[in-house]
Design goal:
Elements lengths: L3 E6 L2 E6 L2 E5 L20 E3 L5 H4 L2 H8 L2 E5 H8 L6 E4 L4 E4 L2 E7 L16 E7 L2 E5 L15 E7 L8 H11 L1 E7 L11 H11 L3 E2 L6 E4 L1
Parallel strand pairs: 3-4, 4-5, 5-6, 10-11, 11-12, 12-13
Antiparallel strand pairs: 1-2, 1-14, 2-3, 7-8, 8-9, 9-10
This protein binds nickel (II) ion and manganese (II) ion.
């Protein structure tokens, strides 16, 4: 049983496991990295790592239209429920739960989590999935931190390389060394001039210095894990 990972663009991703669609950090409408319309997205679950606009912009309309269950930290789940979405599951950092699609644990991430309307979004998270026997770690928006070592080894590591708001290429390379993944997908770059990076050059560095295979995916590109 494999898991299909799809890079939608920037910090937006999806996983497909046993017919269930898990959408991560829905940002479509103002996302220069994807042409997918928020109106056409399907989801059974929507996982949200933190409250920033480039991760929750289309969350409420997609959750309302699809009826997908929203999974996030306690504070973001409260914010979502206050907007009329009842199907939501709160977790928090260090906590795991066996969902219908598999296990999800919220990990540490060093970043912010304020919501677009100024509401408090709790602490930001990384996402560690154990689905269909595969470990998939999305660092999400974060700085490099040594405890990442505790989350590896993994089958797939999705890591930001954009710099400025998150890790840049040098720290992301260190992160790969800590996490020890089989496969790596870079994300959160080239969306705006502020986070322009050469992902192919970064991939060559990672493959020269680690055992990991890097997949530079364009929007809509996917990978069987
Ligand atoms: Ni952010
Ligand atoms: Mn972001």
């Amino acid at each position: 049983m494999s898991v299909k990972y799809t890079y939608i663009g920037h910090g937006t991703h999806s996983l497909e496991v046993e017919g269930k669609k898990v959408l991560i950090d829905p940002f479509f409408t103002d996302n220069p990295s994807t042409e997918v319309s928020a109106d056409s997205v399907e989801a059974d679950f929507i996982v949200v790592s933190h409250g920033h606009g480039d991760h929750v912009a289309d969350l409420i309309p997609i959750a309302k239209r699809t009826g997908a269950q929203v999974i996030s930290n306690f504070e973001i789940v409260n914010w979502v429920q206050a907007q009329g979405i009842e199907n939501a599951h709160p977790q928090h950092l260090g906590g795991g739960f066996n969902h219908d699609f598999g296990h999800l644990k919220l990990t540490i991430a060093h970043h912010g989590s304020g919501l677009p309307d100024g509401a408090y979004g709790g602490n930001p998270a990384g996402l560690l999935f154990t689905v269909a026997g595969k470990r998939i770690y999305l660092a999400c928006d974060t700085a490099l931190f040594l405890d990442m070592k505790l989350y590896g080894p993994v089958d797939l590591f999705v890591v930001p390389i954009g710099d400025n708001f998150t890790m840049g290429p040098d720290d992301a390379l260190e992160a790969v060394k800590l996490v020890n993944p089989k496969a790596v997908v870079p994300c959160h770059y080239n969306t705006w001039p502020l986070i322009e990076q050469d992902a192919e050059a970064w991939a060559k560095r990672v493959e020269a210095e680690t055992e990991a295979k890097v997949h530079v995916l364009s929007s809509g590109g996917s990978l069987d894990v």
